[in-house]
Specification:
The structure holds two protein chains of two kinds.
Chain A (H helix, E strand, L loop, with lengths): L2 H6 L8 E8 L2 H13 L5 E4 L7 H5 L6 H27 L12 H27 L13 H5 L5 E6 L7 H10 L4 E6 L4
Antiparallel strand pairs in A: 1-3, 1-4, 2-3
Helix pairs in contact in A: 4-5
Chain B lengths: L18 H26 L3 H32 L6 H11 L2 H19 L12 H5 L6 H32 L2 H29 L12 H26 L9 H32 L2 H9 L5 H20 L2 H5 L5 H19 L12 H21 L13 H5 L5
Helix pairs in contact in B: 1-2, 1-14, 2-3, 2-4, 2-6, 2-7, 2-8, 2-13, 2-14, 3-6, 4-6, 6-7, 7-8, 8-9, 8-13, 9-11, 11-13
The chains are: A alpha+beta, B mainly alpha.
Chain lengths: ~190, ~400
């Protein structure tokens, strides 16, 4: 970032620019705009809607989550640990004959193996989801946006972050203006 | 890029048209030839009528389970007010509509085959067998025949109710018909659950009148629904290959069906294992003998095939998302599961005929083709003058734009 750009995204009060937000009044306009932003190659941006919008993932070019791989590995670990634990307890550490069954009988071990598989898969899904979404997050810079307030009831907002490598104060503003939104807002990070 | 608009299905072909009589004829002829061949091979073989009726019970039950699964799907659809499944509901309704054919198919068994197949039905069976004597109040020929007829009457009435109201809605577009079906679905589900459980006990569990498993009804149900769910995408793929319903049914629907196939694969394994484990642990002779018979003389191989092929393989194959979404790929696990479902019933039924070894032969294949052919012919007949989707269902649009996440 050149020195000139630096001054452009800081104003006199030493506030730092978070990004440029643009507002739309319909789902269709939002989806079209999202597709344009996606095709323009922006990476750090988001769309804010008052309700889940079908087709938004495609329009934003969001790739499928990697969470399932994590869950699969955690589930397999759970199954392995469950079997190992029971084998060690029943067949090695504390051998005990129970109703004539083998020390390590596979049918008897399935319930605990199953439970541990589910336990690890489910907790890794939950915690992994939080981690991949950077949650918990107590504050988000978009909360400072005036437009965003209506994105919780009847408007749709796109915000391109200043940190995006393709972000250029003036050009991005022109780009957003061409998208056909109803209003553009400069969103500032709140002062520390 | 606009919000997904409902795909226009008014312009696409939604009826079988001239295809229906053609399928009916070809499948019907194949079916009759298969049946005739099956009868000839059976009676020429060493096991004779006994072999025929066992194999006949196996294959008729196989196609019965597909229709039972379809009936469950239709009732469940209304019970939970499902939206996504509207586009495939008519196919399920038509499959459930085949129940009367299966009812007729069971008549020869009820009239001529009971003593061949069911030990307790043989004259004098109770004299030296205390347990059969004890169970005679339930397991006697007239009551048994009456019960089986009653189950079929319940199923046929349920399937006709949903098919006829749904077809009437195609003509009138009256949303109140949907409300009526929804109101009825709660009662229908109770009637379905009780009749399917009891039918499982009667038709399959009583093959060994000493043996009992209280969860056997659920076991039959889980296999039935899985069989139907594996059959459904194959029907859709066939229709789409013929240029039908190409817009109406998308990969989103395949994805949801695939997820249900996966879920019921796990459910089947859960139930099958639960039944096995309780018997294994309790170690009561009356109960374990049933499993012992299935773990000796070659039957253990079928058991292992089921463990691997009915659970582990489809579980791993259906796990990735693309298996359910990529065009046509779901056909592989679907066909595989349909074969495994057949072996599941084989493993339940046939050891009662031949504990000494696996009697698999041409007879089983021919009777499968025979009843299967008639089943497909019945399906085409049912769909000959109906649309392949409930055209004016109030939730059709919801189903058309559905996205499976």
């Amino acid at each position: 970032m050149s020195a000139k750009d630096e001054t452009m995204i800081r104003d006199g009060d030493d506030r730092r620019l978070y990004g440029l937000a643009v507002e739309f009044d319909s789902v269709n306009a939002l989806l079209q705009a999202c597709a344009s932003v996606r095709d323009a190659g922006f990476k750090k941006w988001d769309a804010y809607t008052p309700f889940p919008v079908h087709g938004l993932n495609d329009a934003m070019g969001i790739k499928h989550s990697r969470l399932p791989i994590l869950v699969l590995m955690a589930g397999a670990t759970g199954a392995g640990l469950g079997l190992l634990m029971q084998w060690w307890m029943n067949a090695v550490d504390y051998k005990f004959i129970i109703s004539g069954k083998p020390f390590f009988g596979l049918p008897a071990t399935i319930p605990i193996t199953f439970e541990l598989t589910i336990l690890l898969a489910a907790t890794s899904a939950f915690l992994g989801m939080l981690a991949f979404n950077s949650l918990p997050m107590y504050h988000h810079p978009i909360f400072a946006s005036r437009l965003h307030k209506r994105a919780t009831s009847d408007r749709f907002v796109i915000c391109i972050e200043a940190e995006d490598p393709r972000f250029d104060d003036r050009k991005t503003e022109e780009f957003l203006a061409a998208l056909g939104g109803t209003e553009i807002e400069r969103v500032w990070r709140e002062r520390r | 890029m606009a919000m997904k608009v409902p795909l226009d299905i008014t312009k696409e072909e939604r009826r079988l048209g001239a295809l229906a009589p053609k399928i009916r004829m070809i499948a019907g002829i194949i079916g009759l030839l298969g049946l005739a061949g099956g009868i000839a091979v059976s009676f020429a073989g060493p096991e004779g009528g006994r072999g025929f009726f066992f194999s006949y019970l196996l294959n008729t039950t196989y196609f019965l389970t597909l229709s039972i699964g379809a009936l469950f799907f239709v009732i469940l659809h209304h019970l939970v007010r499902a939206g996504w499944s509207v586009v495939v509901r008519r196919i399920a309704e038509a499959m459930a509509g085949n129940l009367w054919i299966l009812g007729i198919a069971f008549l020869p068994l009820l009239l001529f085959g009971l003593e061949e197949v069911y030990v307790w039905a043989q004259p004098g069976a109770a004299e030296h067998d205390h347990l059969i004597q004890h169970k005679q109040a339930w397991l006697n020929q007239p009551f048994f025949i009456g019960r089986v007829v009653f189950y079929f009457v319940v199923w046929i009435l349920l399937s006709r109710y949903f098919l006829s109201l749904s077809t009437r809605q195609d003509a009138s577009g009256d949303p109140m018909l949907t409300v009526r079906m929804e109101r009825f679905s709660g009662f229908a589900m109770v009637a379905f659950a009780l009749s399917v459980s009891l039918a499982g006990f009667d038709l399959l569990m009583s093959l060994d009148p000493h043996w009992y498993s209280t969860m056997f009804g659920v076991y039959v149900f889980s296999g039935s629904t899985l069989g139907f769910l594996a059959f459904l995408p194959l029907v859709v793929m066939y229709l789409q290959s013929r240029g039908l319903l190409r817009n109406a049914i998308t990969r989103e629907h395949y994805h949801d069906i695939g997820k249900l196939v996966f879920a019921f694969t796990v459910f089947w394994a859960y139930i099958a294992y639960s039944q096995y484990m309780l018997i294994w642990y309790a170690n009561i002779p009356e109960e374990t003998i049933w499993l012992l018979r299935r773990q000796t003389n070659g039957w253990q191989r079928i058991g292992l095939v089921l463990l691997l092929g009915h659970f582990i393989v489809p579980f791993l194959v259906l796990l990735p998302r693309f298996m359910k979404r990529r065009k046509g790929l779901l056909a592989l696990p679907a066909v595989w599961i349909l074969i495994m479902h057949w072996f599941d019933l084989y493993w339940v039924i046939m050891p009662e005929m031949s504990a000494e070894g696996v009697p698999f032969g041409l007879r089983d294949v021919l009777l499968f083709v025979g009843i299967g052919g008639i089943y497909v012919a019945g399906l085409a007949h049912r769909l000959r003058d109906r649309a392949l989707v409930p055209e004016r269902d109030p939730r059709l649009t919801e189903s058309l734009i559905m996205e499976s996440v």
